[in-house]
Amino acid sequence: MLTALAIFTDGLVYAAYLFVVAIGLTLIFGVMKILNVAHGSFYAFGAYGAATAVGIYFDKGWPVAGGFLFMVLAAMLIGLVIGIVLERGILRFVYGKDEVVIVLVTYAVFLILEDVLILVWGTNSYSAYQPLAAAGNFEVGALVLSGYDMGLIALAATLAAASHWALKYTRYGRLLTVVIFDQETAAAFGINVTVVFTLTFVLGAMLGALGGAVMAPKISVTLGIGVEVIVLAFAVVVTGGLGSIEGALLGAFIVGLCRAAAVHLVPQLELFVVYGVMALVLVFRPYGLFTQIQPRKI
Amino acid sequence: MWSRANLAGAFAFLAVAVMAPMLPAWIVSLATIAFANAFVVLGLVILWRAGLVPFGQALFYAIGAYAVALIGRYTGLRDAFLMVAIAAVCAGLVAFCVGYLLARYRDIFFAMLSLAMSMILYGVLVKTETLGSTDGFHVETPTFLGYAPRGPALNLAIFWLVLGLSAVSAFLVALYFRSIAGALAVPVRDNEIRAEFLGISVTRLIHLKLVVSGILAGIGGALAAFSVAHVDPNMSYWTTSGGFVFVTILAGTSSVAATFVGSFAFEMVRSIAVDILPGTWQMILGSVLLLTILFLPDGLGSLVSRFKSRRPKTP
Questions:
Q1: A36-76 pLDDT per residue, tens
Q2: What pTM did the predictor assign?
Q3: Which of B101, B108, B281 sits opposite A99 (nearest CB)?
């Protein structure tokens, strides 16, 4: 019983993390049809930025509560800058090329950003444990839960609700839905698709950086975190269905719970299970759980 | 069969083989690993011509490498030719099984699913103590039909082995491109449904291409294992696959010879970049990749055909 409860809470925390990381990726794919390998770099930049911000803030001894906000804002600012530079500087020149070619362009960008990261932050590891410690622990029965983890779950839930609300009930969200449905028709009706693309990409980049920022206190911020996270995020969004936010949520749940179960029951399968689940889902639902099957065009 | 291109290719391979003992050792070892990787790229080219980009070819590469390493560890078999053959069969079998799933997908989904497959293997390798976990393990020194060299002679022997197999497979793949199954790649890429209406089973065709490319990648992995004398799980990581895709972009898919030149160029760029600017070699690679996609979308191989088409044609 205790193990089951532990699996559930761990799985939920992990799912929250996966969702925060994956939502930006699935948003960019849904709107722009770009599978963005550089999303891993957004995550890494967010994590490094947050670690630096936390270091500065907590050294000053300012009130703890502001530290969380400062950490997140710093990371999202970095995401904003990188997002604009990438979209305006590189990606807009390759729109209309083959989807797979654009994947390779983002792969090239990813390689470049990996070294930019080293140039900016060097090869040292950073830690940003202060927010984790500040949030404290509390006990529920025999389980010790971290306050920070609960905050992570709340953040993921808020993001899910906010994105659902924004897509369904705001002007920008409605425009986005139209562009997703048919880009050319949307343009013909006077929607400025270029602006929608830029905004979407920047938003996706900021979400990626946010994912890195909220994870920074929980991990050792070191080289190679972007490489790892990108394949994880891929697995989540492909399981759920590329381009679907509900799909990313469900994918994060499934992958998170399965991994937590593996960690507690059969630790050898930890890495295997993430991709195993994805392959299994794709056997039965070839385009993920939440994707409508596209008619083939002759 | 004795076309000019084939003769030129054969001559080039012979020339390199004869020159090898005179070249500095670092170039020989660089060329060994470059040509071993060229096998994988050759397999990628086969799929690429049908419009498929596998982002997980490292799966078969690692299977080939681990097959060789495991044979050396648990059996007395040391003959390089046999070991490579077994590695090729293992990779081919895995490709055959995985192919039932993969052959149903196209575009990004194909790329992602093949990536997932290689990551599954990575997950298994990292967590399996008996397979060396993250450290990997040592590969036994091979012998060549009874000839058992040591030291510099061994490196040369491995290079000749790689070169010989490269020549054979380059010839066979060129032959395959001209065969019906090979030529069908273009209609499949252009319009799959029309190809099916002509009575071609596209799924089976792609399955076949997957197995062929898997075998090639297995051979490449086996040869790389000989040359490095060590295997580790990173051989199956997605960045390894990304490297192969990179070389394919660089080389282009228009000719078989370009694959080998491109693979060599890639290793050169990489080792020079690491040597001169150790902190920024990925940035250089990324920039080269970006520039290639933007300005030379058909790769290095297209330079040759561009040059050819510029020459006035004699009637």
A1: 889 999 999 999 998 888 888 877 777 777 778 888 888 88
A2: 0.86
A3: B108
| B108 contacts on A by Cβ (under 8 Å) | 35, 99-100, 103, 242
The HSE-up count of residue B143 (CA atoms within 13 Å, CB side) is 8
And the tokens for A284?
């039965």
8 Å CB contact between B68 and B132: no
Rounded distance between C-alpha atoms, residue B230 and residue A178, angstroms? 53
Q: Which of A238-242, A294-298, B50-54, B282-286 has the lowest mean pLDDT?
A: A294-298
CA atoms within 13 Å, Cβ hemisphere of B60: 37
**Residue B274 touches chain A, beta carbons under 8 Å:** no
ipTM: 0.82
Among A91, A102, A234, A275, pick the best mutation site for testing chain B contact (most B Cβ within 10 A). A275
* List of residues 6+ apart from A187 with CB closer than 8 A: A193
Q: What is the three-class DSSP state of B7?
A: helix
Note whether B290 contacts A: Cβ–Cβ < 8 A: yes
Region of residue B47 (phi > 0: left; psi between -120 and 50: alpha; otherwise: beta): alpha
> What is the CATH architecture assignment of B9-16+24-301?
Orthogonal Bundle (1.10)
Cβ–Cβ gap B109/A286 under 8 Å: yes
For residue A219, the model assigns a pLDDT of 81
Which sequence spans correspond to the domains of chain B? 9-16+24-301
**A contact residues 94-133, partner B, Cβ 8 Å cutoff:** 94, 99-101, 103-105, 107-112, 114-116, 118-119
**A274 contacts on B by Cβ (under 8 Å):** 119, 123
**Residue B75: phi, psi to the nearest 5?**
-130, 170
**Does B290 contact A99 at a Cβ distance shorter than 8 Å?**
no
Q: Are B29 and B202 in contact (CB under 8 A)?
A: no
Q: Among 2.40.128, 2.40.10, 1.10.940, 1.10.3470, name the CATH number for the domain at A2-284.
A: 1.10.3470
Please name the residue that has the structure tokens 């799929």. B47
Q: Which amino acid is at A157?
A: A
Residue boundaries of the structural domains of chain A:
2-284
Q: Where are the beta strands (DSSP E) in chain A?
A: 137-140, 143-146
Cβ neighbors of B140 (< 8 A, separation 6 or more) are: B69, B72, B73, B78
